[in-house]
Amino acid sequence: MNPTITLFISLFTTLVAIINPLEAIPVYLGLTAGQAAAEQRRVARQACIYALLLSFFFLLFGTLLLRIFEVPLSMVRVVGGVILTRVGFDLFNPPPSGGIIPRADSGDADIAFVPLAMPIMFGPGAIATLISMASTIKQSPGELLHFLAASAAIVACMLTTYLSLIYAKPILRKIGKQGIDAATRIVGFFVAAMGMGLIFNGAVEFLAPYSNLARTAGGG
């Protein structure tokens, strides 16, 4: 398969799994209960726009942040993997406190930004994924095409999330709370598996220079 298409599919599925629009539905409906349909659509649209802007910020400036703080990509993958694994465990078996995925709190703040856009839609897992992806794109020969594919994947993911919020009530009626809970747990399993893969790949990449150095020293 074409590497650009592979990148699009990989990033799209990863972001959808991390964001998990199904999990945002009960929170969204709870926060907008009693509001007019037009206001509910506005909140959904605004939340997705906020999450989209945050995604592009970390995609564009993720590597710059790494350089400023002098953090190697391998460590980002390890830490990102740890975060993804914990997110996956929280999705698979959510603790009473809500764990790393905070629940909605009442208040006068802009609910489209907090808690919908951040951290429910765009949390630690998405940040780690996009920073890692940005670093990988910078190292690839077809940087522009890969950047366009990643951008398309982000837009497609946010569009999917927006549609799931717009049709939240019909979705909830169709599959019910038990269906959402089952889907969330299945997604959590695969998110945890992706996190473990990132940890393994990051550790191998970090230890590779030391392995080469040991072989060189042994050969000498």
From TrEMBL:
This is UPF0056 membrane protein. It is found in: Cell membrane. Belongs to the UPF0056 (MarC) family. Keywords: Cell membrane, Membrane, Transmembrane, Transmembrane helix. The chain crosses the membrane at residues 48-69, 111-132, 144-165, 186-204. It is a multi-pass membrane protein. InterPro entries: Multi_antbiot-R_MarC (IPR002771). GO terms for cellular component: plasma membrane. Pfam families: MarC. It comes from the Bacteria.
